[in-house]
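Two records follow; treat each independently.
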Amino acid sequence: MSKKLAFFSNLPFQLRLIAIFLLTSALSFAMSLFLNQNINRSLDNINSVYTSNNALNDINSTLESLQTSIQQYLETKSSDSLNNYYFYAQQYRNRIDSMNSMILDQESASMEKNIYNLSETYLTTADQSIEAKRARDSVNYHALFNEASEYYRFLTSYIYSLNNQQFVTNSRNYHSLESSLRSLERINHLMTIAVALFNIFLVILLVGQMTKPLLRLAAASDRVASGDFDVELPPVTSSDELGTVTSAFNQMLVSIRRYIEQVRSSMEAEKKAQERELLMETHLKDAQLKYYQAQIHPHFLFNSLNAGAQMAMMEDAERTCTFIQNMAEFFRYSMKSLQTDVYLPEEIALVENYLAIMNVRFSGDIHFEKIIDCDIVNVRMPCMILQPVVENAIQYGIRDIERDGWIRLHIRAKDGFVLISITDNGSGMTQERLEDVRSGHTGSEPSEKNSNGIGLGNVRERLKLYYNEDNLFSIDSPGPELGTSVLIRIPIDDMEVL
């Protein structure tokens, strides 16, 4: 029995509800079928109770019609009355022959036998009377008719007595059948109550199987919601929908416990990392102190260049004065911290200043073209981004070519970015070299003494850290002696760029 209950408990709720519905429906159908059969049997018995009385009444009515047709023929000798006689005589014989099926007891059987015999004598006498009338034997047909009439009175009396006796018997049977119907009614009520109680029992059983796991699960959920993750896992007692939900809850709780443990471990690791970071900040402060100390020499050089520019101006050496001023301006800008940001026009001015200095060295062989297709006044970006790219183009592209070198700066706005492309017609790169530069394995880092020491890899990383985005820096070259192109994408966000 327990195995059957366990099997039933493991069924899905939908199948359990369908099984209960089918079971109760089968019980109700069986009860209805049983009651209908008994009620139909009782109704058939009730219908047959007074069948014998109806049959006797039909016999008596046919006998009266037969007697009347004989009398009419003897008086009128019409063919209609003769035909009626033959018709009713045949009907009466048929009804008399079927009387045996109505007999219910011995006394009634004796009376039926007398009626049957007396009817045969009556019919014989009636036939003789009719034949005597047709033969115009007036003496005999009167005597025969009187004799037939006497038999008629006896038959009527016997039929009446038998009918009364059958009525009494049928009345007793009717009361007995009425009592049976009332018993069936009581049985119907009892069976209806029994089926209802059984349905209630099944519903209570099913609801109990549903609510007990739900209550355990709800209690565990409340404790978890209050922050108690050490609650005992609810047992999985079945493989139905509730069992699946309970199993999923247990897995979730186990995962939360593991996650909390991982967070604890992570917090401990983060705490250790913070301690290391504090130590690194201490070292960084020492390094910054040394950096500020190292800036004393650029400031001294910057001030010296300004003094030299004033002297060149006083001596009317205009080109020398311009060169020294460009050098001073370049050193002044380069002393800015790389962590600050500047406006894009400042970066472009630094590029132009740097190219002016380089053209003194390269005798004006570097041609510079600037194309600006959008408003760049409000565009901010990290400091020292464009100049290292231009410096890289000169040192590794234009420097070693025999033809005139040129550098093109093109700025435009597209899809929420300011696109800055710096293109040269220098030495270019092979595909292998280009892949190395893109991957950062062998970045193009200036190594000249007059370089500012900031290479393309540094530019790429500072753009990534500043904007917290990848793919802001890209470099491409069609091949050796075909030049190089660098594309820098600056997110504009809410900046006004037209």
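The next record belongs to a different protein.
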Amino acid sequence: MRTDTAIPSAMARKRFDSVGPVSGAWSRLWRPGALLAVSWLAGGCAAFQYYAQAASGQLEVLRTSRPIETVIAHPDTEAALRDRLLVAEDIVGFAESELGLDAGKSYRRYAAIGRPFVVWNLFAAPPLSLDSRRWCYPFVGCVPYRGYFNRDAALRAEARLARRGYETYVAGVSAYSTLGWFDDPLLSTFIGWSEPRLAELLLHEISHQRVWVRDDAAFNESFAMFAGETGARLWFRKIGREGEFDAYLASRQGWQRFRALLLATRARLESVYRQGGDEELRYREKARVLEAFRHCYRKQKPSLGGGAFDALVEVANNAYLGALGTYTDWYPAFAALYRQAGGWTGFLDAVDALARLAPEERKTALRTAHPKRHAGDGEVDAPRCDVLEPETFPGGAG
């Protein structure tokens, strides 16, 4: 799942991608009557309404889609779209023939859905915790987001959680994977992206079909983030344009530095929240950390995107920072595993082995591979800001 408004790297994302579920697999029992029966048993009226909108939204996407060859051959298809569909076909073919990934019947069709995002994901966290609220789904497990095909429905759900005291964040999602339960089409929400970004997205989503561990969103999304970026580099190397991909990564330096600052802020907040004791003190410390974050951003804005992330700075809260961690926490560990494996095939074997481990064993193995958490992509350090140093916060050991 990509949540690109929430996490505006070429992540997907998911991708905050923008940062699923609908980023999740719907059962093959999903024929409308069966799916609604399951949703009713799963939790009554609220669950019924949620799964009803999910079923309706998924049906609409599939109904709108057309075979790629039909779209390419149609005389009214614009040349830019025709060329992009051909590129997407080549990338999917590369994923299957050389990366050991299987897209199944996904990305063989195209859907023009007439809106900027396909779904909107809702994230939430308590005011003194970065532990995201989790929602659980049949067959997929629990994930730290709730997806809606209608933005207004997402905002209504957000308001309900806010009234219960949660910090919230809603992010538009350009793409999601049903993990092979449906034949995911190419979408108008991302088909016009640059070729490096498109390759990264498609390989991210196809990677979800290779590896999805129930109840471990951080593992799944961090793996797909790394697989998408690394696979895209291999694609551009194959077609003799690796320099173009390097330039694309260089263009993201502002985001990578900003992300490093976000992760440093998140680590600092974790320290504050772990202190226990006086709640009022923790609220004051939290306010100081966030103000320090905003001050640091303003001070170093030219190297942090030049103002591109002003809006995110204003809304950054526990919900947003928790979502960011879902996509980044284990990225450095996967990068280390890739180096240790000596290449793509060995890397996938190592990931498959990790996926078979029990949850705590898997976390231990990932920490062993790369013991430093919150390192972003492992290459870009957080901007140095004295106001973020631990000694600024006297209550702050963590």
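Discussion point: The CA atoms of residues 151 and 299 lie 34 Å apart. How would you locate this feature using only the token line?
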